[in-house]
Structure formats: structure tokens, C-alpha cells
Amino acid sequence: QVQLVESGGGSVQPGGSLRLSCSASGFPYSKYCMGWFRKRPGIEREGVAGLDRDGTIYYEDSVKGRFTVSFDNAKNTLYLQMNSLKPEDTATYYCAADFVNYGLRLEYNYWGQGTQVTVSS
């Protein structure tokens, strides 16, 4: 049974940093693709960063240079390091996984419950 559990959200001032974690279990990580998505107020859920099984990484344009996605094989955990946070990054962040490489599209079959990130002064 695939399980994805996000953590690490919180409140931070503009310019600050957070690191989100997604603990993964129940599937062969080397054969799956994973991604981070977010749901901002008034905006449909959108892809933020994706990690293909061959190590290819995708970023949504607005987060390039600020966010970094990585996977720790020893801990079975997907990370999203978020730096230089802006108020418009305020959202619920979700991780997702699937055998198919959907990149930043929303067709992933497995989703976590989400973690809230609030960027405000």
C-alpha cells in the first residue's frame, strides 16, 4: 500500500526558508516518479517540482533557482528545500508518486495529505 506523509510546513517571513519532507512507503522507489505540488488560494493545484526515476528534475518556472527537490534513498524521503520564499508561495503542499512519469502534470495516482506553508510578514 502506497503511503506518502508530508511534514515540515509552517509559517515563515518573506525571504525565509523551509524544507518539506515526504516520507514514502509501500512501493519500489527506484521504479517510481515523484513530485511536489501546491494548492494556492483561488488557484488550481499546480506542479512545483518533479523527480523522474532516472534522476531528471523538473521545476515550475516561478520556483526555479529558489526550490530544490531531492530524494534520500536511505530514508525513503522526498524533500523540497524552499529558499527566498515569497507571499505567493503560500499554499498547501502535496507530494505525489506514480509508476508513470507525469512530470508536473496532475495525473499522479498516489498523493499525500498535504502540509501548509504560509509566507507572511
Detailed description of the structure:
By secondary structure, the protein is mostly beta strands. It is 0% helix and 49% strand. It has no helices and 11 strands. The model has no long low-confidence stretch (mean pLDDT 95).
Report how far apart the termini are.
Answer: 40 Å
Order of helices and strands: EEEEEEEEEEE
How large is the radius of gyration? Answer: 13 Å
Biggest pleated sheet: 7 strands, mixed
In short:
The chain is an all-beta fold and 121 residues long.
Outline the fold blueprint.
Layout: E1 3-7, E2 10-12, E3 18-25, E4 33-39, E5 46-51, E6 57-59, E7 67-72, E8 77-82, E9 91-98, E10 110-111, E11 115-119
Parallel strand pairs: 2-11
Antiparallel strand pairs: 1-3, 3-8, 4-5, 4-9, 5-6, 7-8, 9-10, 9-11
Features:
121 residues, mainly beta, seven-stranded mixed β-sheet, four-stranded antiparallel β-sheet, 49% strand
